[in-house]
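Journal club side-thread
Mid-discussion, someone asked how the predicted structure for our own chain would compare to the paper's figures. Pasting it here so we can look after the session.
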Amino acid sequence: MINIIIADDHPIVRSGIKNEITLEGDIQVIAEAGDGDAALRKVQELHPDVLLLDISMPGMRAKDVLVEIKKTTACKVLVYTAFGDSDTVLGMLKAGADGFILKQEDSVQLSRAVRALAQGGSWYSVEIPSFATLLTSSAQPAGSQDGASMFTGRERQILQFVNEGKPNKAISLELEISERTVEYHLSKIMAKLNVKSRLEVGLWVKSNPSFTTSP
């Protein structure tokens, strides 16, 4: 069972999400929060698998909530937004968001996003303008090396699986290595790219179509 917390300042929105998402059978809402301070407190107290976080709420800013959650818990954060302006979305991405989904998307997509994050993957809506920009950006890895030469063969394999949206467990089975080893390689990849999240790694691969996983 995947445990989630819904953080949104509109009770009717929280109720609608809860009613829809719990129909799936493998997801349960263990708490709700109507402001940023309550969201942080409940995550730290209850340790959910995923926090569904609205960008605009009273109290502590969503970005600050995200930063504190990443410092103190292993909870995955799915940012839930109606519009997703570029500055806000990119700020949340840099703060460590694990996924982004639009409020107008249906409950099936929301459930898929929650599952992806709970399994160690990431999720983003390509309809958010900021991601359309990121996917076509000329982002470059840290340092002077190009993407093809800076990674080991194993890292290139993992990058390809990340690009395909496979969670860590699936990657470990494909490569016949432990999940901890997958996490180790991902940490090395993130250091080389100078990014903080798995989502940013996936976006980097997509924004570099010439990238290859061949040795």
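Post-session note: The chain has a mean pLDDT of 86.
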